[in-house]
Amino acid sequence: MDALTLIKSRHSTRKFLQKPVEKEKLDLVIEAGRFAPSGGNNQTTHFIVIQDKVVLEELARIAREEFAKMELTPDTYASLATAIKLSKKGNYVFHYNAPVLILTANRIDYGNNMADCSCAVENMMLMANALDLGSCWINQVNWLNRNHVMVAYLKKLGMQEGETVYVSMVLGYPDTEDGLPFRRVVERKGNPVTYVNCRCNFEE
Ligand SMILES: Cc1cc2nc3c(=O)[nH]c(=O)nc-3n(C[C@H](O)[C@H](O)[C@H](O)COP(=O)(O)O)c2cc1C
After folding, report:
1. Which of 16, 28, 63, 113 lies in disulfide reach of 106, CB 3.0 to 4.6 Å?
2. Is the confidence at residue 9, as pLDDT, over 90?
3. Can you tell me the distance from the alpha carbon of 140 to that of 65, in angstroms, rounded to the nearest whole number?
4. What is the fold of 3-201?
């Protein structure tokens, strides 16, 4: 697949087979993330790769219990509101029971922390598509990155002092009819482009 087709055909996968991702494929995905650009070439993105079912269930439980304690207000961001509502009902699994959850953490005191993690995750999602794997960006862990229960557990998993999780993603084989990720190219309605190719926008 050429680069633009790979980019345009990447879509979020939210239904996964209970099939582990081979180590060779997982290593390639992580390598793609580690080779992302970083501000000032800092290379401080920390990849925490979780495949252990017990740990995945524990993370889902913590998130569910902590979201369930939150109150909804009219200003609550829509996706967070959904997480809170479903958690209060007791049936919320933020990682879609994917076989792999990758957390990207970075230094709290580093200005490009979120940007660097985002570059790494996009690289990994594209690599996943190249390998016929499904992936999806996951925001729920960073929504809880000041929650002491979640933070304590993330530290047990290897998050360092002075780090916070900024972006996460899930990875695995898509549960689709043909076993492949959904790849239809969906035309853009937004994301406008302004080409500046004359002096007409400048004042004389
Ligand atoms: C910043 C950001 C946050 C997102 N958070 C979540 C999330 O928490 N859970 C989820 O299922 N998808 C999440 N997504 C995926 C988007 O919903 C998805 O990329 C978008 O709807 C476009 O669909 P596509 O990825 O299939 O092209 C997020 C994407 C981005 C870029």
Report:
1. 113
2. yes
3. 13
4. NADH Oxidase (3.40.109)
**Does 137 sit in the ligand 1 pocket, CB within 6 Å?**
yes
By most ligand atoms within 8 Å of CB, the mutation choice from 9, 59, 137, 170 for ligand 1 is 137
pLDDT digits (tens, 9 = 90+) for 160-190: 999 999 999 999 999 999 999 999 999 999 9
In this structure, are residues 38 and 114 in contact, taking their beta carbons and an 8 Å threshold?
no
> Can you read off the two tokens belonging to residue 197?
């190719």
Helices 78-89 & 53-68 angle (0-180, nearest 10) = 100
> Helix 23-34 to helix 113-130 angle, to the nearest 10 degrees?
140
Residue 202 binned pLDDT confidence (cut-offs 50, 70, 90): low
CA of 178 to the centre of ligand 1 (A): 23
Give the pair of three-digit tokens for residue 150: 């979640």
16: β partners: 174
95 close to ligand 1 (CB < 6 Angstrom): no
Q: How far apart are CA 188 and CA 186, in angstroms?
A: 6
